[in-house]
Amino acid sequence: EKAVNLKKDLAEMQEWMTQAEEEYLEKDFEYKSPEELENAVEEMKRAKEDVLQKEVRVKILKDNIKMLATKVPSGGQDLMTELNVVLENYQLLCNRIRGKCHTLEEVWSCWIELLQYLDLETSWLNTLEERVQMTENLSDKLDAVNDALESLESVLRHPADNRTQIRELGQTLIDGGILDDIISEKLEAFNARYEELSHLAVSRQISLEQQLQTMRETDHMLQVLQENLAELDRQLTSYLTDRVDAFQMPQEAQ
């Protein structure tokens, strides 16, 4: 009777494992929204816990069959063969569910990381847009133009590492068919804004550099002119002081 009950327990365990495999491992999941992906992650965590909780039952079943095989070798041999199959299938099920759970957790982590990088770069784009706007309607003072140029250049020196991460993370998820529509839309919007703002900023940078160069050249010319006028004023003053007749002066002084 005990052998019959143990055989029944083995059959039930095998049936449960078959159902668990169908439910958790053979379903085709499509993760088209973050909610679907998050739910799948939570479901696989529960599946892993559920499978691992059966470990105690498997151990008790194993011990009981071994004890029976020791007491009644003839009756326990068939059960030992069935037990070994169940143990092998159980270990395989545990490994597969652990693997799928780990994969989904990695995918979810990849999605969260992508959002974090997008937030960082969006914040940088907002700053860049603000600095570009600050270059409009500048006063005609050299210091104001120089400060605006330096402010813009400091933002443009932003490293490209984050954008590389965004591209790689997004491509990894899209290649896996995970949130591909949402990610494609986000990346398209981000890249379009990045291209527009970066081109505008570089164009404004070049314009400011040219304006600054022109202002510096103009300032230099004015300084030279002022020095020449000062020297001429000094000469004319000395001529007047010495009561030199105008016709005795050099042509430029006349």
How would you characterize this protein structure?
- This protein has 254 residues and is mainly α.
- α3 (73-134) packs parallel to α6, α4 (142-156) packs antiparallel against α6 and α5 packs antiparallel against α6.
- The radius of gyration is 40 Å and the shape is rod-shaped.
- It has one domain (1-210): Methane Monooxygenase Hydroxylase, Chain G, domain 1 (Up-down Bundle), CATH 1.20.58.
- The chain has six helices and no strands.
- Keywords: Coiled coil.
Structure in a nutshell:
By secondary structure, the chain is mostly helical. It has helices at 2-24, 34-71, 73-134, 142-156, 161-175, 180-241.
List keywords for this structure.
254 residues; mainly alpha; Methane Monooxygenase Hydroxylase, Chain G, domain 1; rod-shaped
Q: Mean pLDDT, as a whole number?
A: 89
- Portion in helices: over 70%
Number of H- or I-type helical stretches? 6
Rg over CA atoms, rounded to whole Å, is 40 Å
Q: What is the domain tally?
A: 1
Q: Briefly note the structural class of the backbone.
A: mainly alpha
Largest sheet: none
